[in-house]
Every structure is written in C-alpha cells, then in structure tokens.
Amino acid sequence: MMSTRLSDYDYPLPRELIAKRPLPQRDASRMMVLRRDSHTIEHRQFRELKSLLAPGDLLVLNDTRVLPARKFSDDRAIEFLFLERIGPAQWKCLVKPGRKMCVGASTNIDDVELRVVDVLPGGERIVSLDKDVDLYAGGAMPLPPYLQRQSDAADVDQYQTVFAREPGAVAAPTAGLHFTPENLREMAHTFVTLHVGPGTFRPVHSEDITAHTMHSERFSISKESARKIDNAQRVVAVGTTVVRVLESAIRSGGTSSVSSGKSADATERVPPIASGETDIFIYPPFEFRVVDALLTNFHLPRSTLLMLVSAFAGRDFVLRAYAEASRERYRFYSYGDCMLIL
After folding, report:
1. Buried b (16+ CB within 10 A) or exposed e, 102-134
2. 86, CA 20 to 30 Å: which among 9, 115, 259, 311?
3. Positive or negative, the Cα torsion across 27, 28, 32, 37?
4. Same fold, 6-67+144-341 and 70-129
5. Which residues lie closer than 8 Å to 327 by C-beta, 6 or more apart?
6. What single-letter DSSP state applies at residue 213?
7. In CATH, which superfamily holds the domain spanning 70-129?
8. Which SS3 state, helix, strand or coil, does residue 262 take?
9. Rounded distance, CA 59 to CA 259, Å?
10. What are the residue ranges spanned by the domains of the chain?
11. pLDDT digit string (tens) for 160-188?
12. Domain 6-67+144-341: which topology?
C-alpha cells in the first residue's frame, strides 16, 4: 500500500528499546532479515551477513567522517553545531536556543568572539569570528538529539565507522557502525561519500509528505567505485545515505560533475566519476535503479529514513517488521541493531 500521509509512517516504540550506547563489540548486533519476494522475516546476527551474500554481491559503504562539531559558549548558555567553514573567520552553524542569537548578537567560545551576521531561511546562522580559528578543535561529537545525553570520550570512537576517512559529516552513517576491519575484509566492498548534514534529524511537519523539502548534502563517487558498482551482480547499499548517493547519481544528468563527459545510460549504474549535491527525497512509490539490497538500522517514526526504507521494501511489510522487532526487543536507532532487506 502506497501512502504520502505522514501519519501512515508512525509506530509505537517503548523508550527503553532506544539504544543509548553501542554494544561492546561492533559486530555483535542482531540483524533482522526481510525477504521482499516472500515477505518473510528472519532473526539473525550481524556476524552472519557474509553467509547471506552471493558471489558477485558488492557492499557499498559511506566513508564520510563525523566532525567533532558541537561546542558551547564560554558561559555554557549557547550550544553551537558548526556545519562548515565558509570563509576566513566565518562559519555556518546551528544555534540553540536560536532566540538568543539574532543578527548582531555575540558570545565567546574559547575566548574568541563570535557575532551573528546573518540568519538563513532554514534557521542556520552565519557567524564571524574576531580571529580565524578551527572551531572543530576540541569539539564534541554531535550525537542524535533522541539520545538525550552529551557525547563523551567513548563516543569519539564509537560514533565513527572504522572506515571513516573523508571529514565533513555532522552525523554518522550508522549502518556502517557494525563493521570491523576484520569482517569488512571478508566481503567485496567499495566506498562512496555523502557528508551527512543536520537535515537527517529534521522532522517532517506536513501531513502530506510530498510537501517536505530535504536539505542538500554533498556526495562523490570515484572512478574506481563507479567501475565496481557497474560490474556488481547485486549492489548492497550499507545505509540510507548510500541509497541516496547511488539513486541520485544515476538521475543526475548534467547536474553532477562527470569528469569523463559521459552521462549515465542504460548500461551504467552510476556515472564514471560523479560529484555534486543531492536533496533527493525517497518515499513510496519510487523506482530504484541501482540498489538491489539494503543494510540499515531501525529508524525513527515519521522520519524520511523510514519513508525511504518503506519505498524499498513496502510500507506495510516494514511496519510489520518494526512491530516484530519491538516484540523481540531489538535495539533501535543509531547505536542499535540492524535490518538486511533482500
């Protein structure tokens, strides 16, 4: 059943099932397996992933690296999430509470004065500093708000994939958190990059989900990764961010940078080298042209991530699986268990 009503992507969840911390071992999570052809559900362990892959399958992972982007003013009254440096001594950031930081307002961080010079339509602030410093230095990891706690020293490693290498994200591609260097070496894989922005936590407010606008995020695919993806028998996206990269690239046409000058055609899954920005919003119905299988965590009710998963596997099937996951006491959200959709 297809639906564009926000209320049709809701589900009840006991708060104690929200994983506040990861398991001691990254690959010890449970894994629910959904088979789309038979609409059957299996309860497995993430360590069984290799046995569920076939020859020719290719895992595609997001190698973005989370920036320690959260800092507080020296008086602890204002919280900042620094999104990007946009010029010498000038940054784009999110501020909480925003009412205290209107245009012209100022405060100090590490004895450096920040002054708001602009407020963007999405609520982001442009701030100027009285001297050019790296505001990521000494910052905290930006944990999802639903964890309702500040990050600590353990999160510096735990809220980062073991293969993270391209700095630029303010949230982790959490499906990748289950991998260790050892188990990743045992499976054919490649990487793409999408720098996860704050829009991943932005709620959908309109009952008609088609009225929702996604924030734009930067992505790139190397020539070598494009070659591997094109040659794969089955593309297994690790996380919703990878889905968004691949399904954007195949649709990008002239909007992405394709260094070879050759656009995607029927024989290619993605352009040879693609980079650009995407604000693709995937919800039912949607024609997936690249992704054949999906490994993902369990997502918040009414979220764009749940809508993407519903587009891939069917809303009714996904919500039935979520209800079973709740009954079986799976761990939910960023530090929780995972789901493999085949």
Report:
1. eeeeebebeeeebbbeeeeeeebbbbbbeeeee
2. 259
3. positive
4. no
5. none
6. -
7. QueA-like (2.40.10.240)
8. coil
9. 24
10. 6-67+144-341, 70-129
11. 999 999 999 999 999 999 999 999 999 99
12. QueA-like (3.40.1780)
